[in-house]
């Protein structure tokens, strides 16, 4: 029983990172109906910038604040310069463009900082506690707290502020929003900038658990895509809960299914996602579409 509880807690910590990154993907998809495959590499680039500032002597919290600000500006710039011109192009074109963003920022990080892995400082202390035979660490609880705070802040923004309501309207009814005076392009730019900040936070949380490298977010992107698919691509809440479910399923499954090694851990969340989609194709919290023929 203690092993099960420990794996569940560990899975929740990993799932919080998956959920945060899936939330960034869902924010962009809701606003522009685009899946940004370059989101992880953009986040990695901004985390590298924060790491470099910390190496130059800037306090860690200031370096992270500067990285978040850069992430917002980068998200806005990418939307204006790259995504907006192809937003009404065929979906195949948009996929190729976002894959191009993946390669561009991966190459940029590799060119500026090389391929060597680097240690990224954790914002949480190294303390830990044992409760009922389950090991809890400050980093683990901190990651869950960040995800919870992020979900609450974004939920309040979208539900209770005029700006958030304008963003939701722009995403749902772009043409009609213009008629009531909403500056849709501004809302979409802000959405991409906000998603880039959320992606940066996810990358900054995962970097101390791994090592900072140009490709560190590539596997996280796969888990985040599975999380968003599981929760539903039009549901931020679904993205968060989907990430937590994926993290727990991976951790518990790898511990109790002895025939699954490290190489097949990824098969567990994929199998869980497929099983859910067979029952509910739109995801756990996605809206079912109705098409007339």
Automatic annotation (TrEMBL):
<feature type="transmembrane region" description="Helical">
    <location>
        <begin position="134"/>
        <end position="158"/>
    </location>
</feature>
<feature type="transmembrane region" description="Helical">
    <location>
        <begin position="60"/>
        <end position="82"/>
    </location>
</feature>
<feature type="transmembrane region" description="Helical">
    <location>
        <begin position="266"/>
        <end position="286"/>
    </location>
</feature>
<dbReference type="GO" id="GO:0022857">
    <property type="term" value="F:transmembrane transporter activity"/>
</dbReference>
<feature type="transmembrane region" description="Helical">
    <location>
        <begin position="211"/>
        <end position="230"/>
    </location>
</feature>
<protein>
    <submittedName>
        <fullName>Branched-chain amino acid transport system permease protein</fullName>
    </submittedName>
</protein>
<dbReference type="InterPro" id="IPR052157">
    <property type="entry name" value="BCAA_transport_permease"/>
</dbReference>
<dbReference type="Pfam" id="PF02653">
    <property type="entry name" value="BPD_transp_2"/>
</dbReference>
<feature type="transmembrane region" description="Helical">
    <location>
        <begin position="178"/>
        <end position="205"/>
    </location>
</feature>
<feature type="transmembrane region" description="Helical">
    <location>
        <begin position="94"/>
        <end position="114"/>
    </location>
</feature>
<dbReference type="GO" id="GO:0006865">
    <property type="term" value="P:amino acid transport"/>
</dbReference>
<keyword id="KW-0029">Amino-acid transport</keyword>
<keyword id="KW-1003">Cell membrane</keyword>
<keyword id="KW-0472">Membrane</keyword>
<feature type="transmembrane region" description="Helical">
    <location>
        <begin position="237"/>
        <end position="260"/>
    </location>
</feature>
<comment type="similarity">
    <text>Belongs to the binding-protein-dependent transport system permease family. LivHM subfamily.</text>
</comment>
<dbReference type="GO" id="GO:0005886">
    <property type="term" value="C:plasma membrane"/>
</dbReference>
<keyword id="KW-0813">Transport</keyword>
<keyword id="KW-0812">Transmembrane</keyword>
<keyword id="KW-1133">Transmembrane helix</keyword>
<dbReference type="InterPro" id="IPR001851">
    <property type="entry name" value="ABC_transp_permease"/>
</dbReference>
<feature type="transmembrane region" description="Helical">
    <location>
        <begin position="12"/>
        <end position="28"/>
    </location>
</feature>
């Amino acid at each position: 029983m203690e092993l099960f509880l420990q794996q569940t807690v560990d899975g929740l910590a990993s799932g919080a990172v998956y959920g945060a990154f899936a939330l960034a993907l869902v924010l962009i998809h809701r606003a522009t109906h685009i899946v940004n495959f370059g989101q992880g590499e953009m986040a990695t680039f901004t985390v590298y910038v924060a790491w470099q500032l910390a190496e130059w002597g800037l306090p860690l919290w200031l370096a992270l604040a500067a990285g978040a600000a850069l992430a917002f500006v980068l998200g806005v710039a990418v939307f204006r310069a790259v995504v907006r011109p192809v937003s009404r192009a065929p979906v195949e074109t948009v996929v190729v463009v976002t894959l191009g963003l993946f390669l561009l920022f991966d190459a940029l990080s590799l060119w500026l900082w090389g391929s060597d892995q680097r240690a990224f400082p954790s914002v949480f202390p190294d303390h830990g506690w044992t409760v009922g035979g389950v090991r809890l660490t400050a980093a683990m609880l901190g990651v869950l707290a960040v995800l919870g705070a992020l979900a609450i802040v974004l939920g309040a923004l979208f539900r209770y502020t005029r700006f958030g309501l304008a963003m939701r309207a722009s995403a749902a009814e772009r043409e009609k929003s213009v008629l009531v005076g909403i500056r849709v392009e501004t809302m979409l730019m802000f959405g991409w900038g906000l998603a880039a900040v959320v992606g940066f936070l996810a990358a900054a949380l995962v970097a101390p658990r791994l090592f900072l490298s140009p490709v560190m977010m590539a596997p996280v992107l796969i888990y985040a895509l599975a999380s968003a698919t599981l929760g539903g691509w039009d549901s931020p809440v679904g993205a968060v809960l989907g990430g937590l479910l994926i993290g727990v399923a991976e951790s518990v499954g790898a511990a109790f299914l002895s025939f699954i090694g490290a190489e097949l851990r990824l098969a567990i969340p994929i199998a869980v996602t497929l099983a859910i989609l067979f029952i509910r194709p739109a995801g756990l919290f996605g809206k079912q579409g109705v098409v007339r023929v």
